[in-house]
Amino acid sequence: MTSSNIQNILLTGGAGYIGSHTAVALSQTGHRIFIFDNFCNSDRGAVKRIEAIIGRPIVVIEGDLRDTALLTQTLQTHQINAVVHFAGLKAVGESNRIPVEYYANNVQGTISLLQAMQKADNHPKTFVFSSSATVYGDPKYLPIDEAHPLAATNPYGRTKHHIEEILGDLAKSDPAWRIACLRYFNPVGAHDSGLIGENPNGIPNNLMPFVAQVAVGKLAQLSVYGDDYDTPDGTGVRDYIHVMDLAEGHVAALNYLTTHDGFHVFNLGTGRGYSVLEMVKAFEAASGKSVPYKIVPRRAGDIATSYASVAYATAELNWHAKRNLKDMCESGWKFQHMTAKSS
Ligand code: NAD
Ligand code: UFG
């Protein structure tokens, strides 16, 4: 990277799981990073650990996305050139229970952020958005490419779809905007240092943090949601991607936007799927611990199989996932027993 490419980048939600790993990747590429977070699902300890990895302090602005004035001031004070927007609520089940809070936080929060970008004197117009494979809903074909119809089946997914539409309209209204929506598949694993990773509050909703907590002895056994799907072993198949590969996808997207204006959508996955039982077996091998499980009925809303076509991201971003399943499990285990522990 040449010094002319170095940017001041604001990471909303930068203290969270994916944001913290992306902060490391961007910082190590030479960019100056700034974190804006209200710590509703993270803590300042994560920022300290990012600082330990990158070896320098980070400017943190504690605030809510809906505080447009604070965001405007932040963008101006730090002469931000680009925003990577991670901040949002992300639990599918919770979004069914409190949909208004999801629309308020995710959609209204994004509108507030875009308004701040328009108001700020320096007018930053480069934007990378954390979207999700959940926007596709029940797959009509596999692998899922970016042209697949969008039919999210829950309020969380619909917030992501609405935000993508707002961003598409914005890019049409003003060709100076440079926007990338990154549709993540299933991020897992942790930074090699074991200092940052995924440590959800309460009982994990997602498979791999649950598996890690069983392995470390914090939870007794995994419930496998159904073994009667039309998959090789009957359990659900997903495209798990190492969170550092995902983080590097953001570096590639920001780089792409330096030479491409307009609105772009990319799948970030590996292009292959693993079943729940394959994931359990791989985690047992990586940790040397056993992960007892029982088969229980299917979880409402789950699909059998989801994996990405990554052809477009590979061709356009010059990026692909490099780390394998063993890397995902070993790093996830290192973080679990070194930092998240069994407390
Ligand atoms: P996370 O909860 O670990 O991180 C989100 C961060 O945003 C947290 O630090 C939280 O405190 C902050 N935040 C939330 N609402 C805020 C607000 N109103 N103002 C300021 N800060 C706020 O989640 P993550 O797994 O790192 O996910 C990051 C993004 O990626 C989210 O938008 C999520 O929807 C999306 N995503 C995640 C996954 C996944 O499986 N983890 C998959 C697809 C998409
Ligand atoms: N599963 C279990 N037991 C558990 C948890 C999960 O058997 O305790 C199974 C699920 O049935 C599924 C697989 O493990 O077959 C993966 O489930 P996750 O909850 O980890 O992930 P999902 O694919 O359901 O959803 C995740 C995020 C969504 C996101 C989607 C695609 O939760 O927000 O990946 O990116 F949209």
TrEMBL record:
Q: What is its EC number?
A: 5.1.3.2
Annotated keywords:
Carbohydrate metabolism, Galactose metabolism, Isomerase, NAD
Top class in the EC scheme: isomerase
The record lists the catalysed reaction(s) as: UDP-alpha-D-glucose = UDP-alpha-D-galactose
NAD-dependent epimerase/dehydratase domain: residues covered: 9-269
Record's protein name: UDP-glucose 4-epimerase
Name the InterPro entries for this protein.
Epimerase_deHydtase (IPR001509), NAD(P)-bd_dom_sf (IPR036291), UDP_G4E (IPR005886)
Which family would the database say this protein is a member of? Belongs to the NAD(P)-dependent epimerase/dehydratase family.
| A molecular-function term among this protein's GO annotations | UDP-glucose 4-epimerase activity
Q: In which pathway does it act?
A: Carbohydrate metabolism; galactose metabolism
Note the Pfam families from the entry. Epimerase (PF01370)
Partners and quaternary state?
Homodimer.
UniProt cofactor(s): NAD(+)
Q: Which GO terms describe its biological process?
A: galactose metabolic process
Its source organism is Sheuella amnicola
Protein's UniProt keywords contain DNA repair: no
Q: Name one GO cellular component term.
A: cytosol
Q: Please tell me whether the keyword NAD is annotated for this protein.
A: yes
Which residue stretches, if any, does this entry annotate as coiled coil?
none
